Amino acid sequence: MTLPTPSPPGARLRAALDQEQPLQVVGTVNAYSALLAQRAGFRAAYLSGAGVANASRGLPDLGFTTLDDVVTDTRRIAAATSLPLLVDADTGWDDPAEAVRRLAGAGAAGVHLEDQVDAKRCGHRPGKRLVAAGEMVERLRAACAGRPDPSFVVMARTDAAAVEGLAAAVARALRYVAAGADMIFAEALTSEGDFAEVARAVPVPVLANMTEFGVSPLLTAERLGELGIRLVLYPLSAFRAMSRAAQEVYAAIRRDGTQLAVLGTMQTRAELYEVVDYEAAERRVDERLEEEGT
């Protein structure tokens, strides 16, 4: 019997976009959080550049991470879950085509590239600087040339709304679509009207970034869908909560000399084992050892 060929990751991301409108794309900073996201019912996951910088390297998100850093985290997350993974490829490093090839090879379903200078900064920070639209067009063309199959998603992020105004952001987005971008990530929009205007003007799916403590209003997925948005991103929501919880546990242990006061906030051992299917893996190990006579 011939088994069906698995769909490429990009095709699974596009299918998820068809199945859920708007599609909620949730940030996962490591393989375990991706498993939790899948168990919660999400259809797509995201690897944030800030997440790689902050969680994996302990660095600010200022262009310090390398393609190798992002490939490593991509490979681990993609291997752990069936969720299609959208990856933040920053500015594409020195070679967007090579970045796409390597991230696709690691299991990514798609990437987004942005139109900031290489020394980029968080999209919700002041002082952003953009490259010329023509330079971003070349980045996108190179990225599209590197994709392994037509389903692999190349998304263009524009930070122009905060730097040049909304009209310029729309104009850039249209140029990026003409250059081959499958979707548009319009960063740091500040009102419902802005989201609606970009969604109306751009002929491909538009992503809204619902990052906390930034300049964009935190709108529900339902409301964003009404405004024409097709993808809603929550890049670091779980990571922020996990980090606050870790701070509180560390403080309690240091203060009290025991973790007893914070046990109720922890995932239990049994819950952890259920997520990673520990007992089934343990049985397989025992069976292999028996077969080997160990």
Topology:
Elements: H1 9-19, E1 23-27, H2 31-39, E2 44-47, H3 49-57, H4 67-80, E3 85-88, H5 96-105, E4 110-114, H6 133-146, E5 153-158, H7 160-163, H8 166-178, E6 183-186, H9 192-201, E7 206-209, H10 221-226, E8 231-234, H11 237-256, H12 269-276, H13 278-292
Parallel strand pairs: 1-2, 1-8, 2-3, 3-4, 4-5, 5-6, 6-7, 7-8
Total beta strands: 8
Major sheet strand order: 1-2-3-4-5-6-7-8
In terms of DSSP E residues, the strand content is: 5-15%
Helical residues, percent: 40-55%
The shape, in one word, is globular
Q: Structural class of the secondary structure composition?
A: alpha/beta
Order of helices and strands: HEHEHHEHEHEHHEHEHEHHH
Task: Please tell me about this protein's structure.
The structure is a single chain. The protein has helices spanning 9-19, 31-39, 49-57, 67-80, 96-105, 133-146, 160-163, 166-178, 192-201, 221-226, 237-256, 269-276, 278-292, and strands spanning 23-27, 44-47, 85-88, 110-114, 153-158, 183-186, 206-209, 231-234. It is an alpha/beta fold. It has an eight-stranded parallel barrel with strand order 1-2-3-4-5-6-7-8, surrounded by nine helices.
